[in-house]
Give the backbone structure.
Amino acid sequence: MASTLRDKTRDAISDLPDLTEVRDEIALLRRQIDKMSRQALRDGRGLRDRAAGRANELYADGEALLGDLGRELRLAERRARDTVRDHPAQTAAVALVGIGLLVALLWRR
């Protein structure tokens, strides 16, 4: 039985990979991990750059829209002011109707 145990132990030890092979495999895995890490970093930078570019575009579009909206509001204000100047009696009548509607709504509550 002792020889069988010795034979089994010897066989098991002989089946183990060589330490040099294990070291080579570890070195290969490290190189692959380094390569994948560098690629992931490059990909991440590319995504960041694209996202920053898109954010800048959206910001510029928003600024342009706000500028257009400001111009439209100034134009509407100017038109309303001109209408009030040109038709003061009608403006007063519309204002009184609006106040009457507001009072009626508040009174019902």
User: Anything to note?
Assistant: The helical segments are 2-15, 19-86, 88-108. Residues 19-86 form the longest helix (68 residues). The chain has three helices and no strands. The mean pLDDT is 89.
